[in-house]
Specification:
Elements: E1 14-15, H1 18-28, E2 35-39, H2 47-54, E3 57-61, H3 64-73, E4 79-83, H4 91-96, E5 102-107, H5 113-120, E6 127-135, H6 136-142, H7 153-161, E7 162-170, E8 175-176, E9 183-190, H8 201-211, H9 219-222, H10 229-234, H11 248-256
Helix pairs in contact: 8-11
Length: 260
Amino acid sequence: MQGHRARKRFSQNFLHDAHYIERIVAAVDPRPGDRLLEIGPGLAAITAPLVARARHVTCIEIDRDLAARLRERFTADALTLIEADALALDWPALAAADPRPLRIVGNLPYHISTPLLFALLPIAGRVRDQHFMLQKEVVDRMAAAPGSDDYGRLSVMLQWRYVVTRLFVVPAGAFSPPPQVQSAIVRLLPRPANALPQVDAQRFAQVVAAAFGQRRKTLRNALAPLLDEAAIRAAGVDPGARGETLAVDDFVRLAQQRAD
C-alpha cells in the first residue's frame, strides 16, 4: 500500500475503502476545536479527513516508518505525533495535559484491543467519546447482554462505565491486506460521574474478575476469597448463580458488600 508493507507484528491492516472511511468519519463527526486523539493512524485514511474537519489531530503511532510518513504529510499545526506504544503511555497524564475532553478514535490492533480498552478505563471521566474499529467478536463481547455466550468480564467492565453501541460492520475487503476476521465500529460514551453507582472501582474490578475467572463456577465458589455466602445474599444475588447471568447492577451490589 503506497510503498509500505504491512507488518504482522503490529497487526497492520490498512483501511482503504472510501465508503467505510466516510461512514466512520461521519460517526465521529469531528468539529474544529475538538481534542481528537487517534490511535494507530497507519496510512492516514481516517487521519486526513479528521484533520480536514477538526483542523488538528494528535496521533499515536508505534511504527517509526509510518510516523515518518505522517510527519512528511502533515504540518505541525495539523498533527501532533506521539511515537509510542499506546499500551505503554501514561494515559492519565496525557488526559490531564489539556482541559478539553478527549475524543478518542482508533483502528485498534486485534492483539492489544482488550488490554488497551482496560487501560483507558481510568481516564473515562476526561473523555467525551470513543470510536474504535475492532474485531467484530470483541465488539460483540463489549455490547453483550447477560446470559449470552459473549457476555463476560469485558462486557461488565465497559458497560459499567460506558454506554456501548455497536454501529456497523466493516468487511475484510475494505482493508489491505484483508484480515482473516470481520471488523466492527463501536461507540463508547462515558456515563456522567453523577450517574455512576457509589462503588470502589478497584473492588468492583476484583469482584468481576473473580466471577468470570472460571465460568462454570457458581458465585458461592468463585467469590469465596472476596465474599461469603451471606454477603452474596445480602446483595440480592443467588450464591448458586454464575457470573454470566448477572447484570451490571448485580455486580455493583456485590462490590458494595464486605465479607465478615
